[in-house]
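lol forgot to send this yesterday, sorry. struct tokens for the thing we talked abt
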């Protein structure tokens, strides 16, 4: 039982196979860093300076804070830790320490103005590209496989998703536009409602992806009983049936904490949904539209997802169940990098990278299906699981404990699979996200599961 079998592509991580020549690795890193910065620029150039410095929600930082924080982390890890340079602006380091100042405080800080933040990021990136041209990928652990550079690329695209969430929250005229994902494939209506995931052991996590973060490590054997999983994420149409059946008004479907929160917060529907006559509408990046019934439901909290699952006579999958469905190939007994295999994500396989700015209809991306038959396990919407966020056996906090370790505990629930806002560089099937069960400004959806019968023979 291994992650891969004599397949250098499967052992690599990143957009290359095997142990790449340094020039190939440098080109891949430069491509990821450049792509991330292009998205950062689009998200921050799309609004005026007033919008950049404004806090659109106490849950989110001003966009200008994200802009300078991205540069500050890049300077810290690549120029200082890898390159051995002194701090360029030590006086601003505390301003952009995410643990020193909660988001609600950040608008009160003496932050860099938009022009200063952009100039700082430009200067840091220029020095980083110079460093990339000459640094050897040997020696310190941070340099193995280009990890430090990959970590920073992933950090920036994670903030790109965070900034996209801020764009969804902000009031005012639309400033972002994207094409539609298009209709569902012809077979979408003929798909079975659920698929069977066989019981038995599989290898969860990874010890081979060079850019995997600490909470994804190490690879370890997990025993999972057979279970059934929704073929696609739960749709808005299915979720509307839960609402119409009084799901928000019946405490039978809610945990005690969930029912208390539902009452205190006055929850009656997913975030951004409104009744307009007999129709549900929603606001999407400043535009009002009817809720598409065939699209995966979006902007629901863990409490709402769990209540829907109970109403449907089902449950949320565990994190291990989700990963086995997404990665395990029963034909070979191997654990894949992605549902479709070991090849990197591309447009025909998953909805990633902020290309469409919305989920694709349920049943899309048949080429990206997992061996079990489930579709859209990567991209479209983050999927809530029933699991608390915790370490894998043998976990080691690295390169700093504040990335994962300080969040371990029952107060956070795990989400898997990424969303349309996630870049492919952070779209691995092992990637773990986590948040409070009340959160729903994130691009969160879910699918449900039920336990299967024990297999014989």
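and heres what i got for the seq, position by position
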């Amino acid at each position: 039982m291994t992650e891969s079998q004599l397949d250098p592509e499967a052992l690599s991580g990143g957009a290359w196979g095997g142990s790449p020549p340094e020039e190939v690795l440098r080109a891949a890193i430069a491509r990821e860093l450049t792509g991330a910065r292009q998205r950062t620029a689009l998200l921050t150039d799309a609004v005026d300076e007033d919008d950049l410095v404004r806090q659109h929600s106490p849950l989110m930082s001003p966009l200008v804070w994200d802009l300078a924080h991205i540069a500050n982390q890049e300077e810290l890890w690549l120029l200082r830790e890898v390159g051995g340079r002194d701090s360029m602006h030590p006086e601003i380091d505390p301003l952009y320490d995410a643990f020193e100042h909660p988001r609600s405080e950040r608008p009160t800080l003496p932050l860099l103005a938009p022009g200063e933040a952009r100039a700082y990021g430009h200067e840091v990136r220029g020095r980083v590209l110079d460093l990339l041209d000459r640094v050897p990928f040997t020696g310190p652990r941070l340099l193995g496989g280009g990890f430090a550079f990959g970590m920073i690329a992933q950090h920036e695209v994670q903030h790109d998703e965070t900034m996209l969430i801020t764009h969804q929250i902000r009031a005012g005229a639309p400033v972002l536009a994207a094409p539609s994902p298009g209709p569902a494939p012809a077979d979408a209506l003929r798909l079975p409602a659920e698929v069977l995931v066989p019981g038995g052991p599989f290898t969860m996590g990874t010890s081979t992806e060079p850019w995997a973060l600490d909470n994804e490590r190490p690879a370890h054997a997990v025993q999972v009983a057979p279970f059934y999983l929704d073929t696609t994420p739960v749709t808005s149409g299915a979720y509307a049936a839960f609402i119409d059946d009084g799901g928000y008004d019946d405490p039978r479907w809610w945990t005690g904490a969930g029912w208390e929160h539902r009452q205190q917060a006055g929850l009656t529907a997913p975030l951004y949904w409104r009744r307009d006559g007999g129709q549900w509408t929603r606001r999407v990046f400043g535009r009002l539209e009817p809720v598409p019934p065939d699209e995966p439901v979006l902007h629901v909290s863990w409490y709402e997802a769990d209540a829907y699952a109970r109403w449907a006579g089902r449950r949320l999958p565990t994190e291990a169940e989700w990963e086995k469905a997404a990665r395990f190939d029963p034909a070979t007994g191997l654990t894949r990098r992605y549902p479709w295999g070991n090849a990197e994500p591309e447009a025909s396989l998953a909805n990633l990278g902020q290309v469409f700015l919305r989920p694709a209809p349920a049943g899309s991306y048949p080429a990206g299906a997992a061996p079990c038959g489930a579709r859209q396990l990567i991209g479209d919407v983050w999927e809530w699981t029933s699991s608390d966020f915790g370490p894998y056996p043998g976990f080691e906090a690295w390169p700093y404990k504040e990335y994962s370790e300080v969040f371990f505990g029952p107060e956070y629930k795990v989400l898997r699979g990424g969303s349309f806002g996630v870049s492919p560089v952070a779209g691995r099937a092992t990637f773990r996200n986590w948040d409070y069960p009340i959160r729903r400004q994130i691009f969160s959806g879910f699918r449900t599961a039920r336990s299967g019968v024990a297999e014989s023979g």
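Confidence is low (pLDDT under 50) at residues 1-17. anyway ping me if u want another try
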